[in-house]
Specification:
Blueprint (H helix, E strand, L loop, with lengths): L1 H17 L10 E8 L2 E8 L27 E5 L3 E3 L2 E3 L2 E9 L3 E8 L15 E8 L1 E15 L5 E18 L2 H13 L5 H13 L4 H11 L8 H13 L3 H17 L3 H14 L2
Antiparallel strand pairs: 1-2, 2-3, 3-6, 4-5, 4-10, 6-7, 7-8, 9-10
Helix pairs in contact: 2-3, 3-4, 4-5, 5-6, 5-7, 6-7
């Protein structure tokens, strides 16, 4: 019995010493993974809230290094080389620091170190890029610190910083055009598939490159057939429109719209109707 009681209290003590109270995190962590062009960009940062405080120039002093978030240093990674505000950043993972001023803010892409939070000073040899942009006043307050990737296109995106009544925007160039043209030339000189021709045609159309090549490639990828899907006909319509071949563009738009109606696909109908209406105005 004594052994049983001793074991009972031992297990009870173990349970209490290993139980933990779940409570909200003051600065919850956020992770973002976004494909931009051919590059995957990842952000990992903690998000403090304003909580009635004045942020810039007070909680975060001007002209001092800030970890660009809370807790551990913010990190950013790029799966391939990019440019930020015109400065080259090679592929890799980095710490992100910033230095706010009254009217401008510097963003510092820094070699990843064992440093946990902010730095007292920079080691210049570890700075991979330092760029500056205007610090805009907002007509409202943003409660929780936010980093986001917006204005995403084939060629790049914006890195947006918002907190309290301030906002800053940095431009990321994913260097897509150079990579895509090289890739397309390599594929086309080999044995391209119909899918390769379609991707190349759409890219040349979207980036306003050689429309005649886009026209040639889309016809190889999607030769006229009763089996074409409505989204394929939309591609043909908009590429023919761009090439100035309006008669065929109208034909493809109409065919695509009719197929979308039969498929009872409202989104596709709306998309193709926009093309159809534009071509008939």
């Amino acid at each position: 019995m004594k052994k049983f009681i001793s074991l009972f209290f031992t297990l009870l003590l173990f349970q209490f010493t290993n139980s933990q109270l779940q409570s909200p995190v003051a600065s919850p962590r956020a992770k973002i993974s976004q494909k931009v062009g051919l590059v995957t960009i990842k952000l990992d940062y903690s998000r403090p809230s304003k909580k009635g405080r004045t942020i810039f120039g007070n909680l975060i002093p001007y002209k001092q290094i800030w970890r660009t978030g809370a807790n551990q240093a913010t990190t950013i990674s790029f799966s391939d080389d990019v440019k930020i505000n015109g400065q080259l950043v090679e592929k890799g993972e980095y710490h992100v620091y910033s230095v706010p001023g009254e009217s401008k803010i510097d963003l510092v892409i820094y070699e990843k170190t064992s440093a946990w939070g902010s730095l007292k000073s920079f080691d210049e040899s570890l700075i991979k890029a330092r760029v500056s942009t205007d610090f805009y006043d907002l007509p409202f307050a943003v409660e929780t610190f936010t980093l986001s990737l917006g204005d995403i296109s084939n060629s790049g995106a914006s890195l947006n910083l918002l907190w309290d009544n301030k906002a800053a925007i940095f431009i990321i160039d994913a260097l897509t055009k150079e990579k895509m043209i090289t890739n397309i030339n390599e594929v086309m000189s080999g044995n391209p598939s119909k899918a390769d021709y379609q991707k190349a045609a759409i890219y040349f159309y979207e980036e306003e490159l050689d429309i005649n090549k886009a026209l040639k490639w889309i016809d190889i990828a999607l030769p006229d057939s009763k089996d074409l899907k409505y989204w394929q006909l939309r591609y043909k319509a908009i590429i023919y429109e761009k090439a100035g071949k309006m008669k065929k563009a109208k034909k493809y738009a109409k065919q695509g719209y009719e197929i979308a109606k039969k498929a009872n696909s409202p989104d596709a109908m709306n998309t193709l109707k926009i093309v159809y209406d534009r071509l008939h105005n």
